[in-house]
Amino acid sequence: DSGVTQTPKHLITATGQRVTLRCSPRSGDLSVYWYQQSLDQGLQFLIQYYNGEERAKGNILERFSAQQFPDLHSELNLSSLELGDSALYFCASSAGQGATNEKLFFGSGTQLSVL
Amino acid sequence: AQSVAQPEDQVNVAEGNPLTVKCTYSVSGNPYLFWYVQYPNRGLQFLLKYITGDNLVKGSYGFEAEFNKSQTSFHLKKPSALVSDSALYFCAVRAGFQKLVFGTGTRLLVSP
Questions:
Q1: Of B49, B96, B104, which is closest to A103 when you measure between CB atoms?
Q2: What would the pLDDT profile of A89-112 be if each residue is shown by its tens digit?
Q3: B94 CB within 8 Å of a chain A CB
Q4: With an 8 Å Cβ cutoff, are B97 and A48 in contact?
Q5: Would the CB atoms of A98 and B49 count as touching at under 8 Å?
Q6: CB contact (8 A) between residue B101 and residue A45
Q7: pLDDT, mean of each 10-residue run, chain B (112 residues)
Q8: How far is CA B73 from CA A11, B24, B66, in A?
């Protein structure tokens, strides 16, 4: 068990809808990262938050947004969903800001299916 | 831009034989390299990392990786494969305070 908790594990929704994915980092970790894993794109970095502030941004669509709350949990909001958004969404956490030698601890992911 | 390449989608090996999962990298500056493993229905787990120092890095579950600067490679190895090693393996690189970039993954299948 990595200590990173993601809910829900599975989510089935329709095109055009909006969903929220939730992540609780390991106790004491200040950084939260969101990744999207799909068969055609592999593992893509979306966004990183450190202690409530956005730290780095990757290939995140404008329809997607995230935030990290004072208790350090994070939410990834996906809106106007399209079929192509179906993927496994991972949250990871690390102790610091993302220094070069930091390792990430991953949650088990949320499987999103857009029908 | 920093990147890693995993040239093999799948590697097949018999139990007890040595295994190698290949990774090459492209960064400007010093590379910081990682290997992660993903078991079915699980998140990625850290295996090992190379920061500086000895080119041979030892990690979890008997895995090791060899850093080769001249060939820009960081291949994952294990002297004797187990069926339970069957999983998806990801190489990743970070340069500076930048995001961790993952390769496309290599599926390792160890047959009994």
A1: B49
A2: 999 999 887 766 678 899 999 999
A3: yes
A4: no
A5: no
A6: yes
A7: 91 98 91 92 90 90 95 97 96 77 94 96
A8: 38, 4, 8
